[in-house]
């Protein structure tokens, strides 16, 4: 990790470095992704089978692409019952949290004969993408499916790449079953995004695609936006810790590494007002790295995107944190709640030394699908809101419209939209 004096210039340099990790900087893959999507759109299942053989080294057919109930039963037998129990406990917390986000339709009326309102309707069909690759994340399965389920989405389709044995990871299957996925298909990569966006002979077209993935998945989601809705174009994981001299350096170091281990592009940043804490954290990091299983990934992550920033004051530290707008922010100070009130931009905020980031990843309840690469300035965590749409409701009686029809006609005429004006005026021709 680099230790840097915090200034406006150093913050700007860090932001520029972090933005290099954005999918928008990997345009060289866009042509490949476009080719995959085009082929899926034109060839359907045959393209899926071909790409799965090429990329995942496994044969799938129309008879085997859909995960069967027998395969799900086998998955439960393969997964440690203790893990199944933990998944169920986490589900309770995640479901309880998201149920508080539910919105109801509402209507208001007046004695003059008007009614206005908002009708909240769940999306009909949602696609959840679950990656394979370097690690298996049943926690992400829960976080993507549960809010859709709470929103009332009637059909939740999951896609995930098969292993070389042609099967889906057992813990992924168990998490999907527990969370309430309706169908699970063995297909991954950009081709899975194409299948969900356009539909194939086996996989129906969805209304929205959610879930993380590699650069090809991210670019595919970007490309199909408009055919379907998407949650976001996720970048690599991030953590920013705001700390003063009261923080435990061992805890801070452990928390920074909890994100650095995700992949080589992950970012871990400490902003502190204490030079002594900075030195102690760096020492603790060196010790942890030697014993952690993903040492090589952590070292590359810290080398490229790891920073310790020394601030003159906590206000200066908070200002920089708001500029960086990290996916995860931990506040480990003497007055963490006071600091929290000054934070404007963060995907999720963890308060105090016993609220470490993995608590949110797995168990607390809030969603761990969060905005990255500075997008916390204008995006929010995945929520029930992502799985509903809202229709405006308008009703006016003749008497209510009669009272204001000339106002509408004047407004429309001022915009030279005479057909708009006529649409109102025709209802009151007898008054002329």
Q: Enumerate the spans where pLDDT stays under 50 for 5 or more consecutive residues.
A: none
Instruction: Based on Cα principal axes, name the global outline.
Output: globular
Question: What is the overall number of helices?
Answer: 17
* Amino- and carboxy-terminal Cα gap: 79 Å
Radius of gyration, Cα only, in angstroms? 26 Å
Strand content: 15-25%
Structural class: alpha/beta
Summarize the structure.
The protein is 45% helix and 17% strand. It is of the alpha/beta class.
Structural commentary:
- The chain is α/β, with parallel strands linked by helices and about 425 residues long.
- The protein has helices at about 10-20, 30-45, 45-55, 70-80, 80-100, 140-150, 170-180, 190-200, 215-225, 250-260, 275-290, 295-305, 315-325, 335-340, 355-360, 400-415, 420-425; strands at about 1-5, 105-110, 115-120, 125-130, 155-160, 185, 210, 230, 240-245, 265-270, 305-310, 330, 350, 390-395.
- Helix 14 (about 335-340) links the parallel strand 12 and strand 13 (about 350).
- Helix 8 runs parallel beside helix 9.
- It is globular and about 85 Å long.
- The model has no long low-confidence stretch (mean pLDDT about 95).
